[in-house]
Specification:
This protein has helices at residues 16-42, 45-59. The protein is mainly alpha-helical. It has a domain at 16-58.
C-alpha cells in the first residue's frame, strides 16, 4: 500500500527543532532591535545608510513600477 501513512508525526505538527530555532532567532533579533538606534548612531553616515537600505525591504512593501502602454484601437486619433 503505497502512499498510506503508517506512523510519525500527525500532519500539521510543527517540527520541534525548527520551532526552537525560530524562537531563539526571534529573541536575538528582538534584542538587536532594542539597540539598533544606538548602534546606528555609532556608524559613519555611509554605513548607516547602507544598513537602512538593507533593512528597508523588511519594513516597507515593495512598489512595482508602472509601465505606460496604450491600446491603439481605443486611442486612435487619426
Amino acid at each position: 500500500m503505497k502512499g498510506t501513512k503508517t506512523g510519525g508525526r500527525v500532519a500539521g505538527t510543527p517540527n520541534k527543532v525548527t520551532k526552537e530555532l525560530r524562537e531563539t532567532l526571534k529573541q536575538i533579533v528582538d534584542g538587536e532591535l532594542q539597540t539598533l538606534s544606538a548602534t546606528l548612531a555609532t556608524l559613519p553616515a555611509r554605513e548607516r545608510l547602507d544598513v537602512l537600505i538593507k533593512i528597508m525591504p523588511y519594513c516597507l512593501p515593495k512598489i512595482d513600477s508602472i509601465g505606460s502602454s496604450y491600446d491603439k484601437d481605443i486611442y486612435d486619433w487619426n
